[in-house]
Design goal:
heterodimer, A: alpha+beta, 6-stranded mixed β-sheet, B: Folate-binding fold, two-stranded antiparallel ribbon
Chain lengths: 222, 87
């Protein structure tokens, strides 16, 4: 009997491009699609990267905020905003009482929370199976103007705001952060919509002269 | 493009929302008469006017109430159920 291999929800959409694959957080992931200099150029123009392998943890309920604070998590103060932890993990407040946390490759805050027992009512852990992308480049406004119904220019995503909207017909969460000194957009959607959203965004990205970049472009792994 | 204001997420295109039916107070099924219960289950008031309606913002999973004038198709205000005093 073979061991099951967990694959990225968008792995099949990657396959035709024959990326260099590797395992990250137990998930087979496209580490690179092209030479580093080609990917670097794409990231300046317009690019998309699959980061579905990053560990995530969801929790909701009227006592979720108290439970997270008791676990030492720094929370965003307002609805639809996010804040980074000291170790780089992201904490997003998706509503009044719902939170999504995402680790960086080198830390395991989500594992600690998964191991933390819930002893009170009003706290419900939420299983996440997101497809997650990083979109970067100077032509991102042109991309989002084609697939987003709301205007993402201006202050919509400033000051650690996040937006839950429809991108190319798919419900998604979107925020803007600085990664390795570069301003990038992060997108999360349900994993089952991942391949469609990847193909749709990549189609527009390639029309604009960009392309895919691998996980190693943003996160160097040993 | 038609727009609707979600109390949590702000003004969004109507395509992000789903109509969830008219908001009506449910009679207590343990104490009401069969006639009252049957009226609640089967009857709807189709007359135009200001109605309270359930609406759902799909991307964020937010259910809320919209008070809408169905004659003019104009939304008067939206709020989370139970928080109408705050709006």
């Amino acid at each position: 009997m073979q061991d099951a291999v967990l694959m990225s929800p968008v792995a099949f959409a990657h396959a035709l491009r024959k990326p260099v694959n590797g395992e990250v957080n137990g998930m087979e992931t496209a580490l690179s699609f092209d030479a580093a200099d080609v990917e670097a150029k794409r990231s300046q123009t317009l690019s998309i990267c699959d980061v579905s392998n990053l560990n995530r943890f969801g929790v909701k309920g009227p006592q979720a905020a108290n439970w997270l604070q008791a676990a030492g998590i720094k929370l965003p103060g307002t609805t639809n905003s996010w804040t980074p932890q000291d170790n780089g993990s992201l904490v997003m407040r998706l509503g009044n009482t719902e939170f999504l946390l995402e680790d960086q490759p080198e830390n395991d805050l989500t594992g600690m929370l998964n191991d933390t027992a819930v002893n009170e009512g009003g706290v419900h852990k939420v299983l996440r199976n997101d497809a997650a992308f990083i979109v970067s480049g100077e032509l991102t406004p042109a991309l989002f103007s084609e697939v987003c119904a709301i205007d993402l220019e201006g202050a919509t995503l400033e000051e650690n705001r996040l937006v839950m909207t429809v991108i190319a017909g798919v419900s998604a969460t979107l925020l803007k952060q600085t990664l390795n000194g570069q301003s990038v957009y992060r997108i999360w959607c349900d994993g089952t919509f991942g391949p469609y959203l990847w193909k749709t965004l990549l189609g527009i990205i390639e029309e604009q002269g960009g392309g895919p970049v691998g996980f190693n472009f943003y996160y160097k792994l040993n | 493009m038609k727009l609707l204001e979600c109390p949590i997420n702000g003004i969004r295109p109507l395509s992000e929302f789903t109509y969830g039916g008219e908001y009506r107070d449910m009679p207590n099924p343990d104490t009401c008469s069969d006639k009252e219960w049957a009226a609640y289950v089967h009857y709807r008031n189709g007359a135009p006017g200001v109605k309270k309606e359930w609406w759902y913002h799909g991307p964020s999973g937010t259910w809320f109430i919209a008070e809408r004038d169905t004659m003019a198709d104009k939304v008067i205000r939206t709020y989370i159920a139970g928080q109408e005093e705050a709006k």
